[in-house]
Amino acid sequence: MKKSLVILFALFGLFLVSCNRDEVNAVEEDLTEMVELSAARSAAVTDTVTKQKCKGKLTEVAAADLPAAITTYITTNYAGSEIQFAGKDSEGKIVVGLKLADGTSKGLLFNADGTFNKALEKYGKGAKLTKVETAALPAAITTYITANYAGYEIKKAGKNEAGEFYVAVKLDTAVKVLKFAADGAFIEATTPPAHPEGKGKRSKHGK
């Protein structure tokens, strides 16, 4: 009987460890996605084409609310891609940021009727991130975070091809994504955007 109880408790302990590991992995994946989505949104909003062609601030749009013409265009021309950002300007033009099947990024501009207008020129360099370890961040960044976000812990960081850094910091349940220039100068702090496909969804268009 005692032997059975020992085995039972051991199995229960292994189950708890496994559950805790799964929870930690899920949190880590969520934080990674938050950083990637913040970079995607910033890249789409600040792209030269967006600034030239769009009128006013972009309002985020859920993937499910995109015109059928847009989703059909993406499915046909970018099979296996994932929508990371979608936003509409005051005239109805829509900017869509994609993560392609090969891991690269592509930004597209559509007219209000859903017809394709133009590819974003610099989106790829701004949206695709390379992981950066906390210890490898410039001193200017860690000093800024220590001074302005006391109590926050650096959880995830990435660097785009333009040299800009995106850093997720967390205090309890509060998460902020901070953007820094290549020299470590602070640019802005944002609340991580929701995934346009919905939480936990990674829809692959045209798969």
TrEMBL record:
SUPFAM superfamilies: BT0923-like. InterPro entries: PepSY-like. It comes from the Bacteria. Residues 55-84, 128-187 form the Putative beta-lactamase-inhibitor-like PepSY-like domain. This is PepSY-like domain-containing protein.
